Amino acid sequence: MDPRSIGAMSRRTFLIGASTVTLVASLRARADASEIRLAAAPAKASLLGSNRPQTGVWAYNGEIPGPALRLRQGEPARIVVENRLAEETTVHWHGVRVPNAMDGVPGLTQPPIKPGESFAYEFTPPDAGTFWYHSHADSLVQLGRGLSGAIIVKEREPVAVDRDLLWLVSDWRLTEDGEIAAGFGGMMDAGMSGRVGNVVTVNGAVAMEAPVRAGERIRLRLVNAALARIMALRFDGHSPVVVSLDGQPCEPHAPEGGRVLLGPAMRADLVLDMHGDPGRRYDVIDDFYDGLSYRLARFAYGEKPSSRDHASDAPLVLPRNPLPEPDLATAERHDLALQGGMMGGGALAGMGGMKGGMNGMMGGMMGGMGMMGGARNAAVWAINGQSMTGDGAAEMKPSLTFGRGRSVVLTLRNQTAWWHPMHLHGHSFRVLTRNGAATPHRQWRDTVLMAPKDVVEIAFVADNPGDWMLHCHVMDHQMTGLMTVLRVS
Ligand code: C2O
Ligand code: CU
Ligand code: CU
Known about the structure:
With 489 residues, this protein is mainly beta. It is built from six helices and 31 strands. The protein has helices at 12-15, 17-33, 139-144, 187-191, 354-369, 475-479; strands at residues 35-45, 55-60, 66-72, 77-83, 91-94, 118-123, 129-135, 148-154, 163-172, 199-202, 208-212, 217-224, 231-235, 241-245, 248-253, 260-262, 267-273, 281-286, 294-301, 332-340, 381-383, 400-402, 406-414, 420-424, 429-434, 437-438, 444-445, 447-450, 455-462, 466-472, 483-488. The structure holds CU-O-CU linkage and copper (II) ion (2 copies). One copper (II) ion binds next to loops.
């Protein structure tokens, strides 16, 4: 087995006896037929450490997180997903600009994969960068039980760093005996901040320690795969430089306020020059929520420095991806108001014209989707008065239709009291303004984090034909109505 093909995949991979076999098999298969196989199935994971009870999870190839998929920019990939769960599933390739039929939205872009069946996803990633994949069926439960993994699309030319690290962060709500707590889709989670957990893992382990060497330059790929948890990361004793956001290279810059802000589904690639003291440990702290700061991970310096006595001074700018530039002068403009949720005290906020959406759209959908009880199929949120709930369905009619190749500016207005990471499928967009002020680098993203009452303008070229979801990536919010469909015809 070529160790380079595993790269930054976690060491844990090799400690899990049974799944190592699967992994080796999948790497072989890939080497032979350039085909990747992912099997979604129940599994056990040692999230809390080897001396604590294991957690029953749902996993790809038996691993938490799923295996990191290493694809090449501009080269076709074929990924066969096998469903060994007791319910339907699909996989969405978050941030990768794939053809609509490969987007993994059940009902809308493909029939869901039934238990025991497989589906072959085929696409050629146009952009190099850090992306991720996750279930898009029964999303709240399937993502919450572990069905996610990273996608690394390599640049055509190697980037000048000493090492490439991947940290996929997951958030779990566990009971005392280490099992995943029941009660997905409760009304309080749905109407408020979503299902924020009580255990946070990096690459499937709590309190992860990353061994590093003084003098090396690291590219750190961060993926927030949580259902709802927003993170703001501080790197004690280090000065990270942001070089890419949501897989799209940016002007290298220090994170705003010294913290890397990552809402659910968002990614950041950082370059870190490791100039700490040999033998010392440095904490990475998440202090997004007031009074709930905790150590996410830490760097553990080895006693020996690297061969270099100072970190590389090679330029940090990554090559641009082939994204079409929106023409703001001719762009068509639309407003999307995010509405609903609970106010303080637990009362549902008024949602203006939302009733029509509930009666019309919801009736058919709730019957058709066969979901379980709880708040999951209730309309708690809306966009422009209309609630599309669940994961996707054939009945979802587009709220806007764009001619192919049109430049589009959307003004997203968060009229709620809650944060929302808003994600668009099939396209990356520039974030032009926030609350009337130009954003520093008009950053390309596929997910924009909106604070309560934020107004954000985004722009993109509608160049990818099909029906595409635009939704909040707090899974409880998506399932309960903070979603719409945009059509590119
Ligand atoms: Cu990563 Cu529709 O989602
Ligand atoms: Cu997506
Ligand atoms: Cu939300």
